[in-house]
């Protein structure tokens, strides 16, 4: 009798915990994956047998002729939306139903993660977004142009100083050092030269902060936070290493203190946030609205600076790597860009200006095509914050009710590689984004920075530093393939978009003719 009860209990547990959750979409009449499909995908992801980019492309190509379908994040039901019109509906027209990102895990002991712009929700997000938005306007980018230019010239000077006709370079290493120096200068008020001072503390801490997801152990840790957040907290596990947390807190605290004591003004992100803090202090009173729009704290500033580092260090360097790779494989495109660079510099009488850089159409097109073919963020999410119904658009659909907390995923990589939106999607073709061709691009099938009010706030910053580094680099060098260059490219199985064995390319000094 005991064994009957025990086996019955085990069977019931297995059914309700491991089988029933995966019948959710079938019960709603929505096409979706079976239990076996889900188990296989979890196994392949955990064991790193499939790249994340391949998994996202598979998500897009599965269930053809469907605007959306059901999938699972482990046992949690999620909706994969692949139709550009529906993406527009969710991210723009009905944005008030999908204001937030889904929560990675409740992390009450990690306030810097909780308070950053990506993690904030609802009115707190709106408030912080409104505070930060002026930091990324064209006029503010123009202020940071000089700081970025210094970093770009310093970057190129390092390679010129090697006095070799051809320098073989692992691009991911050097571009992360460049993005590190740009962020250190423009966001933290710190001068770094990470190519010469390879072990500087700011760079080493940044590498540690952004290295999550590179190993089997990291994947297990991520699963732990997703499925067992309370247990992970009880075990003392943290998403952000306490040493890194303390490092960024101290940098910001010391920086603010020095600026206030010495009345230092530096046109960077910390200055802009300090000014916002002063303005917020003036307007805070005892009204309910004012209490909700609370005063900015030093911790708020630190949280935004840290997430700015996370977003600008690895992803922007990844964009630069893939762009350099495509230019090396397509020398005709590279030469055309170098012609535009030469013409632009001549028009500026030898000194590049912000206005001239922003008018470079072919540079813009190459960056746009790099982001299409190799989006650093291969998928985008939104979380439903109040009940919402996806209305049927054809006879094979029924109304789909989404509830608060439900997650919607847009498969960016799949959309960008879809031949119905981008013919010959595996071909690198910047002309897709030139003049009339650019106007024909479906902007909701092209979402490298997300879509709608919750799209990436720092996209102008990322584009500006990318333009600057390639402008100055291609002015002096040709980017070439070498014996170490991987052709075709082989993506790694990390959580981030990366390449097995690195991005090995050559920098060949241009002739003065």
Automatic annotation (TrEMBL):
Source taxon at top rank: Eukaryota
Gene Ontology cellular component terms for the protein in this record: endoplasmic reticulum membrane
The family this protein is said to belong to: Belongs to the cytochrome P450 family.
Binding-site residues, heme: 456
Residues forming coiled coils: none
Keyword hit for Cytoplasm: no
Bilayer topology annotation: Peripheral membrane protein
Sorted UniProt keywords: Endoplasmic reticulum, Heme, Iron, Membrane, Metal-binding, Microsome, Monooxygenase, Oxidoreductase
Transmembrane segments: none
One Gene Ontology term of the molecular function aspect: oxidoreductase activity, acting on paired donors, with incorporation or reduction of molecular oxygen
Name the record gives this protein: Cytochrome P450
Keyword Electron transport: no
Subcellular location: Endoplasmic reticulum membrane; Microsome membrane
């Amino acid at each position: 009798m005991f064994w009957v009860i025990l086996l019955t209990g085990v069977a019931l547990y297995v059914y309700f915990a491991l089988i029933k959750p995966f019948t959710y979409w079938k019960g709603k009449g929505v096409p979706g994956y079976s239990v076996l499909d889900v188990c296989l995908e979890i196994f392949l992801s955990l064991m790193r047998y499939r790249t994340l980019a391949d998994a996202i492309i598979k998500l897009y190509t599965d269930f053809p002729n469907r605007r959306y379908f059901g999938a699972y994040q482990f046992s949690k039901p999620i909706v994969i939306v692949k139709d550009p019109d529906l993406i527009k509906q969710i991210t723009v027209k009905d944005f008030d139903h999908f204001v937030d990102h889904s929560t990675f895990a409740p992390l009450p002991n990690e306030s810097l993660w909780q308070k950053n712009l990506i993690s904030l929700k609802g009115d707190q997000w709106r408030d912080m977004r409104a505070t930060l938005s002026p930091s990324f306007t064209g006029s503010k980018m123009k202020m940071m142009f000089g700081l970025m230019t210094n970093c770009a010239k310093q970057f190129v000077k390092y390679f010129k100083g090697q006095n070799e006709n051809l320098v073989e370079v692992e691009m991911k290493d050097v571009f992360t050092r460049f993005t590190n120096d740009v962020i250190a200068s423009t966001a933290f008020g710190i001068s770094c030269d990470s190519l010469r001072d390879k072990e500087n503390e700011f760079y080493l801490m940044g590498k540690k902060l952004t290295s999550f997801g590179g190993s089997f152990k990291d994947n297990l840790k991520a699963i732990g936070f997703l499925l067992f957040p309370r247990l992970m907290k009880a075990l003392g596990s943290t998403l952000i290493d306490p040493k890194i947390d303390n490092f960024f807190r101290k940098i910001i605290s010391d920086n603010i203190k020095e600026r206030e004591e010495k009345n230092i003004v530096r046109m960077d992100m910390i200055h802009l946030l300090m000014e916002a803090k002063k303005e917020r202090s003036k307007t805070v009173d005892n009204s309910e609205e004012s209490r909700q729009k609370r005063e900015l704290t030093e911790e708020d500033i630190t949280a935004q600076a840290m997430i700015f580092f996370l977003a600008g260090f690895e992803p922007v360097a990844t964009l630069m790597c893939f762009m350099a790779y495509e230019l090396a494989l397509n020398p005709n495109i590279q030469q055309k860009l170098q012609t535009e660079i030469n013409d632009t510099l001549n028009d500026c009488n030898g000194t590049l200006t912000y206005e001239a850089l922003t008018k470079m159409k072919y540079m813009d097109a190459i960056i746009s095509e790099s982001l299409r073919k190799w989006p650093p963020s291969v998928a985008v999410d939104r979380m439903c914050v109040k009940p919402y119904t996806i209305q049927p658009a054809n006879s094979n659909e029924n109304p789909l009710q989404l509830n608060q907390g439900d997650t919607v995923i847009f498969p960016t990589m799949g959309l960008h590689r879809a031949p119905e939106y981008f013919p010959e999607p595996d071909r690198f073709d910047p002309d897709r984004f030139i003049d009339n061709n650019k106007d024909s691009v479906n902007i909701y099938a092209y979402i490298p920075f997300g879509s709608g009010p919750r799209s990436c706030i720092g996209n102008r910053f990322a584009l500006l530093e990318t333009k600057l580094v390639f402008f100055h680099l291609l002015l002096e060098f040709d980017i070439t393939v070498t014996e170490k260059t991987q052709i075709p490219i082989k993506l790694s199985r990390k959580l981030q978009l990366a390449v097995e064995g690195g991005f090995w390319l050559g920098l060949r000094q241009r002739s003065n003719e």
